[in-house]
Design goal:
two-stranded antiparallel sheet; Rossmann fold; alpha/beta; binds N-(3-methylbut-2-en-1-yl)adenosine 5'-(dihydrogen phosphate); seven-stranded parallel beta sheet
Length: 275
């Protein structure tokens, strides 16, 4: 690959500096334009970084124009016709009627149910799919969708573009999404959203365990269990989210008013002092 360059030779290749024996025998352009060689390079980390970047660009492109949105998580395995599927559908419909765009993982089961409900109520139904080792397409009830290669890029989209999380019954994937979202709220990384669990028969045990094991061992704070709300009623899901958003808007308004008043007081004080 390298030719014998004298030790004091130098080559600049974009941000990289090569000296002496490290100078490649060809230039970047030459390698790009020459005939195709082995394709191993597409699996190298610098190339992956570009792919990751392009996923962010595509996700931001799809979602940045979306208004108020709620992400709905839940099992990929629950079948149409079951009571949980109907619950998911009803929640998707109620959220859409309340003006929220519904974002799901774009897969089958509870994701499909929420997308179907949102679409049937005339709302915007979005699916953020994930490449999996087996054949799978976005469900049929999605108006706009993107399929991601990387879980962590997709997760950023759920958090960045929704203002609430609704968590329906589900397995490891759903638990991962639930605990990531509460961790983000607990650590103040996101301040603007409620997390609502739906299905007390399914989630009640987890809620009790959080109180009994986690709280009693002191591994969470006394107010941390309040980060999660639990209900069975689709109407209440929407009420919890709406109320949280109204409270947040009020707090923001008060903070802004406080800042403006503080500024006025400082200006008046300065004028009085002649400074
Ligand atoms: C039939 C089957 C297993 C399909 C998997 N297809 C999937 N498509 C899209 N998102 C998924 C899929 N599986 C898991 N997820 C993600 O993980 C959660 C569901 O995982 P689980 O089924 O609870 O653990 C969903 O909220 C979703 O964001």
């Amino acid at each position: 690959m390298t030719q014998s360059h004298p030790d004091n030779d130098i080559r600049q290749a974009g941000p990289l500096t090569y000296r002496g024996r490290s100078i490649p025998s060809t230039t970047t352009d030459q390698r790009l334009l020459e005939s195709r060689g082995p394709s191993d390079w597409v699996h190298t980390d610098p190339w992956r970084v570009l792919r990751i970047q392009s996923e962010f660009v595509e996700g931001f492109g799809l979602l940045s124009e979306v208004g108020q949105a709620v992400s709905v998580f839940g099992s990929a395995r629950i079948q149409p016709g079951t009571s949980y599927y109907e619950l998911g559908q009803s929640i998707g419909a109620k959220l859409a009627s309340a003006g929220y765009t519904v974002i799901t993982g774009g897969g089958p089961g509870m994701m499909e149910a929420a997308n179907k409900g949102a679409q049937s109520s005339g709302g915007t139904s979005i699916g953020l799919g994930i490449e999996l080792p087996f054949e799978q397409t976005l469900n049929d009830y999605i108006d706009m969708g993107v399929t991601f290669r990387y879980f962590f890029v997709r997760k950023t989209m759920f958090v960045k573009y929704s203002q609430a999380f609704v968590v329906l019954p589900g397995g490891f994937g759903t638990l991962d999404e639930l605990f990531e979202s509460i961790t983000l709220v607990q650590t103040g990384k996101v301040t603007r959203f409620p997390v609502v669990l739906v299905g007390s028969a399914f989630w009640g045990g987890l809620r009790d365990w959080i109180r009994e094991a986690l709280l009693s061992e002191g591994v969470i704070s006394s107010d941390d269990p309040e980060l999660i709300r639990l209900t069975d009623d689709p109407e209440e899901v929407v009420d919890i989210i709406r109320k949280a958003h109204v409270d947040l808007a009020r707090r923001e308004f008060e903070t802004q008013q406080f800042a403006e008043t503080a500024e006025q007081v400082t200006a008046a004080q300065r004028a009085e002092d002649g400074t």
